[in-house]
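[job 4471] stage=fold_predict status=RUNNING
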Amino acid sequence: MDFELSFGDIFILFFLTLGPLKAILPFARATRGTEPAFQRTVAWRAVAIATVIVLTVGLLGPLVLTRWHVLPPAISITGSIILFSQALRIIMQTPAGMRGSGEPLAIPAIVTAPGIAAIAVIIVLNRHDIAHVTIDVALLLGVMALNLLTLRNTETILKHGLAGILPMVGWVLAVLQASLAVQIVIHALRVLEVLH
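[job 4471] inference complete, writing structure tokens
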């Protein structure tokens, strides 16, 4: 029984779990009052580190999981639990009360556990031919480019009043992420023939 996400679905999942929505406010707080050159350096460094991490996970993850004899349904269920958990944590907060925290590091501001889970789920749910892997890598790089663009323009974005809107957008998208996580679990249970 096949369950394959479209490339648009994959991009949205990567955007939700690895994209700039959660990084912009911590980055702004950590670089407030610093010189633009320093802000650019921090943005480049964080995105470069995040890019190396996500590409390593995306390209080497299948090899490790195969060597450990981890079956695709196990990865799907594990990834979905992580995605659902993060989404539920966001959903249970009120949008006005959401606050970013921490330093604008590659981990955890850009690369998150749900982001790694999303990569793992994409690895097992989609075909593994060179064309699909290339597009998946391009989508990851696209999200990392969005991170860099966003972090480099944080002050401009926040000056236009988006600081209050970003958490609400993240909250709405978390509801959708939770639904996708449940759907992936349902698919895994069907593959395991627990559900028909």
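[job 4471] summary: The first helix runs from residue 7 to 18.
[job 4471] exit 0
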